[in-house]
Amino acid sequence: MTPDNEVRFRGCLDDVAAYKPGRPPARTDGRPTYKLSSNENPYPPLPGVLAAATEAAGQMNRYPDMGAVDLLEALSARFGVPTSDLAVATGSVALLYHLLQASCTDGDEVVYAWRSFEAYPIAVQLTGATSVQVPLTDDARHDFKAMEAALTERTKAVLVCTPNNPTGPVVRRDELLAFLDVVPSNVLVVIDEAYREFVREPEIVDGIDVYRDRPNVVVLRTFSKAYGLAGFRVGYAVAHPPVVAAIRKCALPFGVSHVAQAAAIASLAVEEELLERVEALVTERTRMVGELRAAGWDVPETHANFVWMPLGDDTVAFAEAVQAEGVSVRPFPGDGARVSIGEREANDLFLSVARAWRQ
Ligand code: PMP
């Protein structure tokens, strides 16, 4: 019980476990360390992107353009959607928070697969709503039959993460479209495509095609992963104007800085070069998965910039063993570890520990 002379917070905060960021391991022996724990892009921003951000930094005495007009226009031209169907925010995680804040309150339910992105339960709890977590199938995929069965009168939103963080599989076209057909039109469906650009599976449907004739669908994407701008914090949502309007009402004023807007616009201008880097990461991903499987690891298919290592009770010990070699990964105790695809030497170091672990 909180004593009367202490500040009281909303009851829903009691169960909120704060988001834990990954950190690079600290070494004192002078050998390099690598962070493979946050699904970041190992490549630094391209010179043109840095130049645009640096120039924008000269305006930092002013508030940024709250409407992010130039960025919305650049996104509109890139994806062939009207600016009225676009919103940007401080990373796609902010868009998720805004959407749930706008749509959910005490007593409501939000359905999503589990395990999935660790921010989902936090974002739901902050609204006072209840998470309804539907276990993934044995091969780490969404179980849409079970998700359909989990829908109730109280369901306000459904979150679909594809590719799924942290396990990697992607939702196929047929299963997504069939699921959308059974979700009531007054339930918001968030398709979280943070890793969209890393997908090489032909049997998927693009969220931006899906939303066009579905007013309850919102697609979330980000500049943090494929575009390598995680530190700038820019994500975007694509949805029909009422959904966009709801996001805008909840958004923090001036949340996306001048430098972030400029960097995102500049990235779209050099997208081809950035996507070559994505291709190199996809090649590394194929190598990682191949080598892990050859070493006896049962890793699920992955279409993102990470690999899931099902470790069960060995998860923490494994993460510590990798950490001791200077590589941080993301452990989910009792379940598994997620390893980002990083620079080749980081991947090699990780693979050497993973191989030794199986021997
Ligand atoms: N969605 C998923 C599935 C993610 O994994 C992440 C980042 N880890 C995000 C959204 C948020 O990305 P950001 O806020 O950097 O755009």
TrEMBL record:
Homodimer. One of its GO terms (molecular function) is aromatic-amino-acid transaminase activity. Residues 20-40 are annotated as: Disordered. Belongs to the class-II pyridoxal-phosphate-dependent aminotransferase family. It comes from the Bacteria. The keyword Lipoprotein does not apply. Its cofactor is pyridoxal 5'-phosphate. This is Aromatic amino acid aminotransferase. GO terms for biological process: L-histidine biosynthetic process. It catalyses: an aromatic L-alpha-amino acid + 2-oxoglutarate = an aromatic oxo-acid + L-glutamate. Aminotransferase that catalyzes the conversion of aromatic amino acids and 2-oxoglutarate into corresponding aromatic oxo acids and L-glutamate. Keywords: Aminotransferase, Pyridoxal phosphate, Transferase. The keyword DNA damage does not apply. It is an enzyme of class 2 (transferase). The modification N6-(pyridoxal phosphate)lysine is found at residue 225. CDD domains: AAT_like. It comes from Kribbella turkmenica. Residues 35-332 form the Aminotransferase class I/classII large domain. PANTHER family: HISTIDINOL-PHOSPHATE AMINOTRANSFERASE, HISTIDINOL-PHOSPHATE AMINOTRANSFERASE 2. Its EC number is 2.6.1.57.
